[in-house]
Specification:
It holds the Pfam family Sigma70_r2. About 75% of the residues lie in helices and about 0% in strands. It is mostly helical.
């Protein structure tokens, strides 16, 4: 397939599915602007690395992996940033624009460790199969099943509190 045609197909696919990819980025960073930055960087990476997509039928998994890796890289970089003062933090607290309808669920999800949270988001909010999640996260399917089971157990405990 011609490289420019493939780039166009990738761009069209990402544009038509941008909401689901945005939700994944947002689930990591909990901030609209940061999630949009991750989307932009991920699109750039996808276009720049179009050769790494062996088969167009794997575009969904391929781009999810780019989103997840870009989100993780973003969070690693953020750990090196000095925290801001309380006034700035307070200004962020007033504009929560999340996709979760249940505040208790949101709080419980926010408190889950990252490796458990992403499995729940991909499985239940993005409706991906265990095998797809394993491929995206580059993990064994049994590892994903175990994380999913443990994350649901942790969510139940947190929701009961």
């Amino acid at each position: 397939m011609h490289k420019e045609t493939l780039k166009k197909q990738i761009a069209d696919y990402i544009i038509s599915n941008k909401e689901k990819y945005y939700r994944v980025a947002y689930s990591y960073v909990k901030n609209t602007d940061d999630a949009l930055d991750i989307m932009q960087e991920s699109i750039y990476k996808a276009v720049a690395n179009v050769d790494s997509l062996q088969d167009i039928s794997y575009i969904n998994t391929w781009f999810y992996r780019i989103i997840v890796n870009t989100s993780i890289d973003f969070l690693r970089k953020q750990k090196k940033v000095i925290p801001v003062d309380n006034e700035v933090l307070a200004s962020f607290g007033s504009e929560i624009n999340d996709e979760y309808e249940n505040f208790d669920l949101q709080r419980a999800m926010d408190n889950l460790p990252e490796k458990y949270r992403v499995v729940v988001v991909l499985r239940y909010f993005e409706d991906l199969k265990i095998e797809e999640i394993a491929e995206i996260l580059n993990e064994n399917t049994n590892t994903i099943k175990t994380r999913l089971y443990k994350s649901l157990k942790l969510l139940r405990i947190k929701m009961d509190d």
